[in-house]
Amino acid sequence: MAQKSTPKMTQTLIKTAIVNALMTLLLAVAGHSVAVAQEPAALTIAAPQPAVGEVSLVLGKAWLVSGSGRRAVATGTEIRAEDRILTEANGHVHIRFVDQALVSVRPDSRLEIVQYDYNADAPEQSTIKLNLEEGITRAISGAGASAARERFRLNTPIAAIGVRGTDFVVSATPRAVRALVNEGVIVMAPFSSDCRADSFGPCLINAVELTGSSLQVIELEGSSTAPRLLPAAVERGPGMMEEEVRVAVNDVQNNADDQNAGTGIYLESVTSQRVKNEAANATQPQQPPQQPTPETPTPSLVDFTPETAIAGAELAERNLIWGRWGDGQAAQERMTVAMAEASAGRDVTVPGGADYLLFRAGNGGERIASGLGTVSFGLASAQAFYHSDSGVAAMTVNGGSLDINFDNSRFSTGLDLNHSLTGDVQFSASGRLYDGGYFHTRSDTERMAGAVSLDGTEAGYFFEKQLESGNIQGLTLWDAP
User: Fold this and answer.
1) Residue 233 pLDDT greater than 70, yes or no
2) pLDDT digits (tens, 9 = 90+) for 387-413
3) Do 163 and 129 touch, CB atoms closer than 8 A?
4) Is domain 53-265 given the CATH code 3.10.20.340 in the classification?
């Protein structure tokens, strides 16, 4: 006879079924956990790539782009393979690699560390590849590139560059590449089926070699089938001739020869004999100007180059101030002070050629005051030098204009210059005002870089103009009315 079911028995059966189901589920989970535990490789997290270099100095704004995202570059930032360095208009970065190679990334540049496998035990087995996407970089070979020349490559948008233990500067755009060798040898060739970007070492097809002793520049344009060598006169072209600044690799100490230990001055200027000669000429006493004769009346134009150097105390009262490395142009300097004095209590803004930096008071601020509208600045002071085969000579700056529209972030400027060797020369530029109050332009024959004070009352810029023979470089300071 069947037992009659009761509500209490029904509840017991339901509870038993639930417990059995839970036990089955727990056993299944436990079995899965065991299976996972038996396959530890599935949970392994890839270790980060080892650092191949370290940032030794940063000026202005620069960024590191890696697999983990984008962040600001700072002194001490570790560099790894596949990282990219991006510099803004006032940015400049120095990197010291594990094999003691030195690389500087100049303003408005993008450099990728494609691969950096340095074998300290067997340097000849090292493999190194860099990719200059755009801008200017200087590379001084370390132990890896020196020992493994057939396994080093610097790629640009249109050309491959191999080295034979060297110190060289490269300027690259999507349409053209130029390079200057300070020491050693480079080999440049256009990309082709015989010279692929994913290869290593110098290419041999349509390749041209350049040595540091030739006093020439090598250039490849997008429409050319092979690079060409340009005469030394082009060497002083804007954006190619000199690095933007002379700066310390780590710190400024007396032992200037001990670069491998991270001390001393890392000179960014080109070291060709021609430039050395010009620097030597610049330090020679200048002949006093000839007094005008009755037949040659004194010009009535105003010269904005001070007859004597502006006192440091007077410059220190300005918001913007130009600092110089070393003696600069020696007795011809008129409106600059020593770098240590200029940097006290100020922030660096833009570089001025190889010898100068423009500093701004602002306590680290980066925002320009609002509601400034359009300001027509007046030229306060200027100095300009004509560089030629015969030496360096001070020019006359007769006047100029600088208009900045803060509402639409645009600027335009012009300068009138003169020298007996050049005649009347006009410099002009226009373009965009960037965040932080920076402005800059660059063309085949002219370039400039400047900044405004955060309150919009002062401005200053460095300019350079290439002439048919020689070039002009100068500094300006401007005041709002």
Assistant:
1) no
2) 887 788 889 999 999 999 999 999 999
3) no
4) no
Q: Can you give the residue ranges of every domain in the chain?
A: 53-265, 312-479
Calculate the dihedral angle through the C-alpha atoms of 47, 50, 56, 59, rounding to the nearest 10 degrees: -50
The answer, yes or no, to whether residue 239 has pLDDT greater than 70, is: no
Across residues 456-466, what is the average pLDDT? Answer: 95
Roughly how many angstroms between the first and final C-alpha of the chain, as a whole number?
A: 115
| 375 beta partners | 404
Reported as a pLDDT band with limits 50, 70 and 90, residue 21 is low
* Alpha-carbon distances, residue 133 vs 13, 160, 162, 354 (angstroms): 74, 12, 16, 23
Judge whether residue 262 has pLDDT over 80: no
Same fold, 53-265 and 312-479: no
Q: Which fold has domain 312-479?
A: Porin (2.40.160)
Cα–Cα distance for residue pair 46/149, rounded to 1 Å: 31
